[in-house]
Design goal:
The chain is an alpha/beta fold. The chain has 18 helices and 18 strands.
């Protein structure tokens, strides 16, 4: 066989492989994602095909998805009587449909009679969680994507130890893969074991034990629930604000977060998310709390209606994507978005650009620097379209990484949670968001946004268009990778 024949055979195999994968890829996949995968396989056929088979196909195992359905049915069964809200008459006209959407997608109702305390400082949120854990009498549920025992977090672990010593049941979930990416993994697990806490890894990749799924599907949620009466959620992982990486420390990087403590009936709904995840990682289905939650007189003011929305590959829909797009499309006056990793899906980008074009005051808070190169450059590729539509982009000054994840709509609706506004958070990560209606709460969120603006630089279209050509090329190439899902 001569060189020409060999070349023709290789070419024919390449064409067949590309055709087969094009058919496989296009099934039930967004066109942009399908095109990106096909291009990857065309230009790097064998590597592209292998990567696609590793992270481009597959969902969570059926057993996990069935457990989510089972818990959803239990949650819906207890909904009657729990979905009383405080001030429905004050809702904007679109909010009822949003609450119905979330209930149908996430199986958790909008509940009233809640109070939220914003925790905008890294150490302050840890201190507040410790204070609350020290009041626990029954149980403490802890769930963090990244959970590391270090000098910053040791007081938190000490609080858990004190709780265990009092006879409080402590259950802990953390992501299996991320545990290998940060220091002190063995020390962290050993500390939890020595105090008597029950710990389980989330979405473990242990094929020899029969635990395997698409490896880039991760549980990104962050929450703490104490006795079903106090809860915490938001953007912060349980680790030092430098994330303990040498390159971060060398650059002086540190993370800025937003957590919130919630009191009231919504805590039961937040705990239901933990119950579902605990069940997914074990065969133990914890009871769902249905007891009445009544706020004490010292916190029974400035009440807000709240709804917890879990999302991710254990559900059949992109729950958070649908909520976010609906909210942006419904805005009449103002949209303020904070997302450290802003790589929007097409419908999200269209909703944002359209809102700005119809006169809504839209602003986006992002970091001036990035810790993930591809995501950072992919994010930058969207700035021109946003700026041309009239979106104000605020770059939070280095060396701080603005890692908070929230947005506000008009004067009385907000979302706070673990979800970035990016394709990964919409489809691949398990996230938790809290929808809040309450004018007082949004006023406090506006104060947080004002603080961001005070230490940020506004990006203008003229300056952005003048950036070096090399940066433009890297940004645009990185954008192609954002759809590989």
């Amino acid at each position: 066989m001569d060189v020409e024949d060999t070349t023709l055979i290789v070419l024919a195999v390449h064409v067949v492989v590309c055709f087969v994968f094009a058919v496989l890829i296009s099934a039930n996949r967004r066109p942009s994602s399908a095109i990106a995968w096909v291009l990857a396989i065309v230009f790097i056929p064998f590597i592209g095909a292998l990567v696609f088979l590793l992270i481009g196909v597959g969902r969570l195992p059926r057993a996990r998805r069935e457990k989510q359905v089972e818990v959803n049915e239990l949650m819906l069964a207890r909904t009657p009587g729990l979905s009383e809200v405080s001030h429905r008459s004050q809702w904007p006209s679109w909010l009822a449909s949003a609450a119905t959407l979330n209930l149908n997608l996430g199986a958790l109702p909008m509940v009233g009679g809640n109070r939220a305390e914003l925790l905008p400082t890294y150490s302050g949120s840890i201190d507040r969680m410790i204070e609350t854990i020290d009041e626990a009498v029954s149980y403490v549920h802890v769930q963090f994507f990244i959970l590391v025992l270090d000098d910053t977090t040791r007081p938190f672990f000490d609080a858990l130890r004190r709780a265990c010593a009092r006879g409080v049941t402590v259950r802990v979930l953390s992501d299996h893969v991320s545990g290998y990416l940060y220091p002190n993994r063995r020390e962290t697990i050993a500390e939890l074991a020595s105090m008597g806490a029950s710990w389980l890894p989330m979405l473990p990749l242990r094929p020899l034990r029969g635990q395997w799924q698409r490896p880039d599907l991760r549980n990104h949620r962050k929450l703490v629930v104490v006795d079903g009466v106090a809860g915490f959620t938001g953007s912060q992982n349980l680790i030092d604000s430098s994330y303990l990486k040498k390159k971060n420390i060398a650059r002086g990087l540190h993370w800025h977060e937003l957590m919130m403590r919630v009191d009231g009936p919504v805590v039961r709904e937040l705990d239901a998310v933990f119950v579902a995840d605990w069940y997914s990682e074990s065969e133990e289905l914890l009871p769902l709390d249905t007891s009445p939650v009544i706020l004490s007189p010292d916190v029974a003011h400035d009440l807000a209606d709240m709804q917890v929305l879990p999302s991710g590959p254990s559900f059949e829909n992109d729950n958070n994507l649908k909520l976010f797009v609906l909210m942006i499309q419904s805005a009449q006056k103002r949209v303020s978005i904070t997302s450290p990793y802003f790589v929007p899906e097409e419908s999200t980008l269209l909703a944002i650009v359209t809102a700005a074009s119809r006169g809504v005051d839209v602003e986006l808070f992002v970091s001036a620097i990035g810790d993930q190169t591809l995501v950072y450059h992919a994010q930058r590729s969207y700035y021109e379209a946003l700026l041309r539509a009239g979106v104000k982009i605020w770059l939070y000054q280095a060396p701080t990484v603005l890692h908070a994840k929230h947005f506000t709509i008009d004067n009385d609706v907000a979302v706070v949670g673990s979800s970035n506004m990016d394709i990964r958070s919409f489809s691949l990560n398990m996230e938790v968001s809290v929808l809040v209606h309450g004018r007082s709460f949004v006023d406090r969120m506006r104060a947080v946004e004002d603080d961001y603006r005070a230490v940020s630089d506004q990006l203008t279209l003229d300056n952005w268009l003048k950036r070096p050509s090399g940066q433009k090329i890297v940004d645009n190439l990185a954008r192609l990778t954002s759809s590989l899902q």
